[in-house]
Amino acid sequence: MWHLILSNRLSVVAEPELLCLAEVSTKAGSHTLDTYGVCLCMVAVKLSVCNSVRMKKVVLASVSPWRKKIFSTAGIPFSVEESGYEENMKLQLAPRALARRLALGKAQAVAARLRKRAQQENTLVIGADTFAVFKGKLLGKPRTSAQATRMLKMLSGRTHVLLTGIAIVDSKTGRHITKTVGTRVTFRRLSARDIARYVKTGESLTVAGGYAIQGGAAGFVEHIVGDYNNIVGLPLAPLIEALRRFGIG
Asked: Is 127 helix (H, G, I), strand (E, B) or coil?
């Protein structure tokens, strides 16, 4: 019968509440305090688990202002920390596998630092890595203006794929999830003047593929197929789905 009393009580409040002994005595009637106490202990344990999930911290292993802006729209509190991870685009992996591996490397680098600082408790670290793929060639951030110019000439009037690998690492247990999201991007034909003017701004040196669709290169894109946020550097919907597997969101 005690379970019916608890069930009725839970049905009229938003969250289970712990009762004082006087309330237990009144509401339990002829049922013993020991029996009702067991029930209350079960509720207390459940609440403790729920609270620990809600208190889980999230760290974005990226100082990209664009990724930070995208993730802030999710309504999930988070902090930012640079990964310091050295990307190796020459790893012998297929493009999608490489994107996942680089994202995981970034997340694990930050998770390792958190463990050294004894701050790993209830912390999830998100890593992301983005690059373009055109005819089998991987296009990361160009290092020089000349390289950026060559990339944009290559992409002019053609379709390429922007890949973003995402990774979530539990810094305490090491458990992780990775995923790669792709978006097809088609450029209009760019004139030499279009390219020169854009490269001169310096923006092309800060982004994968040598262009920022959210910035000065917005007019270069004829159409896309897929997730716009993925081009910017953080596919939000797939990321939120992955976070739910860790009890976030």
From this structure: strand
For 242, the token pair is 């992955």
In the set 34, 129, 194, 227, the catalytic residue is 129
The answer, as to whether pTM is greater than 0.70, is: yes
129 is an active site residue = yes
**Which residue, 20, 23, 28, 22, is CA-closest to 4?**
28
Distance CA 246, CA 176 (A): 9
pLDDT in tens, 23-35: 433 444 444 434 4
Query: Which pLDDT band holds residue 127 (cuts at 50, 70, 90)?
Result: very high
Instruction: Report CA 197 to chain centroid distance, whole Å.
Output: 33
Angstrom CA distances, 241 to 43, 210, 246, stand at: 28, 29, 9
How many beta carbons lie within 10 A of that of residue 203, not counting itself?
16
Please list the alpha-helical segments (H only) found in the chain: 2-10, 21-28, 33-54, 65-72, 95-116, 145-155, 192-200, 228-232, 236-244
Question: Is the separation of the CB atoms in 105 and 158 below 8 Å?
Answer: no
